[in-house]
Every structure is written in structure tokens, then in C-alpha cells.
């Protein structure tokens, strides 16, 4: 999928009021992530990061650049762009923000606002070793294929939760990141005859 088709699909499909993977929860900490899309040889790819093993929260997990919304951030978009700049060296001025998704709530206590952005020009990754152990790209077409995205229900503290997961090569993408990817792919799933 190239940028033009992505923008058309993203804008034609009305956003859901709330991510279906989310659930009600009080007292959530607000966070934002950037869903960075980079054109590589005419095909959009998602940039994902892997968290270092030394982190207390979610060590080793695959994630989007992002983090807690700080009091000095104007909004979730500003927070996502700031975090991407800090974590992988992606300048906020090098991102064309296409839109946001409704917040995704996690059972770990976060309300995550996904911010969708297309990278304007190729850039060199500058990873913050305190936040990011690795950075890699995955073709968006891989995620769009429904057979590559999975969901399973788990019982936790007497309540069932849906957990999304996506195996990719030697990596295992799961949890909020996989749920947000699934939401993005469903957003883009407009039949070709409508376009």
C-alpha cells in the first residue's frame, strides 16, 4: 500500500468511537504513541521498537515510540512526536500527522492515544539505549493480511480480556501494540471496489 491509497482508506472509513479492544477503567495514566509509517521502495512500512530488558515495565516488548503525556505536552500528538524524537531520533518536523485513533485502554492502567503519522523523508535512527534496544520496520501489507493477526481471550482476576498478538519473523508483537495495529488494519479495510 502506498501513501495515496493509505490516506484515501484512512480518511474514507469513519473512526470508531472507541477501540473495540479497549474496556472501561477509572484512573488511567494518559500516554500517546506514534504509529510511524515510512515509505520504503513505494510501500508503507511501520516502524516498531523493542524495549530494553532492563526496564521495569514491559521489558523486551515490541512497541511504538511513545510514552506518558507530560504536563508540558500540549496534547497527545505533541507527546507522541516528542517521544519519537527522544526514542528513535525522528524529528517532529519530519512527520505528517494524518490523524489519531480513540484512546486504547490497557489492563495495566494506561489510556493510550495512537497518533498516525507518515514520515516525510528518510532519516537515520538514533536510538536512546535507556528506552529502545532495537528498531525495525514491517511492511504494512503484512499486518493488513487478516490471517497474520490473532486474538485470544484470557481470564485475569475473574474477568476475560482479549489479547492481540502478531508473530513476525523471529519477533512476537502482542498486547496494546498488536491491538492498535489491528485497529489500524480494520480502519484501512475498505473493499477495493469502493475506492
Automatic annotation (TrEMBL):
Cofactor: Mg(2+); Mn(2+)
The UniProt record lists the keyword Metal-binding: yes
Domain Nudix hydrolase: 28-160
Signal peptide coordinates: none
GO molecular function, one term: coenzyme A diphosphatase activity
Pfam family, one: NUDIX
Keywords of the record: Hydrolase, Magnesium, Manganese, Metal-binding
Name this polypeptide is given: NUDIX hydrolase
Organism for this UniProt entry: Shewanella baltica (strain OS155 / ATCC BAA-1091)
Organism classification: Bacteria, Pseudomonadati, Pseudomonadota, Gammaproteobacteria, Alteromonadales
